[in-house]
Amino acid sequence: MEALGDITDAPLWILATLAGVLVFAASAIAYGFHPIARWRLRKLPGPSPAWYSGNLPELLSKGSAVVYTEWGQKYGKVYKYFSGAQPVVVINDAEMARLVSLRLSTRHEFRGPGSLFTGKEAEFNKVGLFSTNNKDFHRSMKSAWLPVFNSASLEISSKEMNIGANRMAAILTNKAKEQGELNIWRQFGHLTMDVVGSAAFGVELRTQDAERGLNSEEAEKLVWAAQTIFATGSEKASIYTYPGAVLPILNPLMRLLAYYFPDDGIKRAINARNILRSTVSKLTKESRRQQEAGVSKALAAPAVNIEAHATDARKKARGVQPGSFLSLMISSKHQDGRGVSDDEATSQAFTFLLAGYETTASALAFTVYCLSKCPEKMEKLLQEVDNLGGSDREVGPADLARMPYLEACLKEAMRLYPPGVFTMRQPQTEDFTVKGYTIPKGTWIHMPIFTLQRSEEYYGKPQEFIPERWIEGSPEEAALNKKVPGSWMAFGEGTRVCVGQRFALQEAKITLARLYQRFTFRLSPGQEDEAGLQLQSFFTLGPKEGIFVTPVLRTEE
Ligand code: HEM
Predict the structure, then answer these.
(1) Which residues are listed as membrane-spanning (predicted)?
(2) Which of 120, 195, 498, 551 could serve as 172's disulfide partner, Cβ 3.0–4.6 Å?
(3) Are 129 and 479 in contact (CB under 8 A)?
């Protein structure tokens, strides 16, 4: 009673301060349980979130592929979890995932170091085709991209893809002769970087071999930068990303700290972006200069004129060549007639490089991995490849149309190992309803491609590599597949579907056909079991260190 007497005797301002502190502490404690979001999503099951950090620690330590699969088994088709303070709804049902992808066209941004950038860098981030959420701008930009992936342009790219595969074959031949192993995942990374270099920028990077190209120094840096941007994409990349994820109110402070006292993660991310941006921006300016000087006047109607540009000229000459993505992009116009600005073009080329490099390399490496574990499937593929003709024969788009088993192998490998683990959408202006579920605006929605594509419900024997399930009319197709739309979504769906799909598939098929003309691959010990690959996943999926094989020449050379 005496103590109470002391308190009531205290001056009012002290009591008010005390009450304020108590209310603040109580709110801070309550906030960490995410009461509002939990209440709004109360009907959905999901793992219990830890105070403040939610389920982020588990997600980051196990990786999205593993954790979404485990949670899917426990919580079913639609469940929620908390990525720090952020509520996420996972749609673990193929038909619903497809519906969401078709009906929603906005994405949330990743919370890696990139989300802490300010000023021009932040603006630059927003105009890339992947990251933009402005619907009109997106529509306009996507149509500016499309000429690069039309049949005429792909015919030209097919030549460069053959060259890339030839260069890789030369390296593999040396390895085969010394019976040495190599990391085929990394090697494919060099190949896809070379192909992006010629298709996107019209420059010869030659990252693959010892005989360096004209831009070899830049090429080395580009490879490092592209790898680093992927490696620093998640919340664990920097000490400044995690606090903002659990308490978004801290983000402005984190931005300031990251700006003035960058840690290693921020420094690496900035450095990588600077390298990519300055290289691409230099090429954009060069391309613009050439265009103004009249070199690429003929590009006013890209879809037609792209055919006119000799691939040889594009390969040999220094600098940006006419017919490349970049030169087409800077001569493109928005739907309102406005020209594409240098910054916009640079951002698209940057996106091309990032989106087209590691994804295709992983698709290639996992296909070789699956085939190396299944000799009888590989034999079938070799027969199809040999039916094309000699081992030196170039492979073009018309040949690919006659190679259904190759396509089936690639599709099946991308089912088991989708390079993108999930796609995401975010209703940004209003709540979104799908099949009776109402998802509050601002919630992240994830469609777990990896989990859906390995689901027992849609695929019989889901863990097995059975390319035949993709061959029309085969017994395996009838027995093993339900073919539910949305159960194979390696390139996403809807208006935000992968724009580079045709390009990537052509590149992967040509490369595989050209390599299997001359080689088979023996998997190095310890990787037969998938656990040996130590799969790492955040947004993309890859082996921790790589995939190691010894190439074996099919005939003596
Ligand atoms: C095997 C290779 C590839 C895979 C597995 C892949 C996968 C994906 C996925 C899953 C998405 C998200 C789709 C969605 O949200 O619905 C996407 C978007 C995108 N991809 Fe790819 N991709 C590949 C290759 C490429 C290539 C080679 C390029 C560039 C030439 C590219 C450029 C893009 C772009 C720009 C977007 C954003 C499209 C938009 O938002 O409208 N991708 N990709």
Answers:
(1) 12-33
(2) 551
(3) no
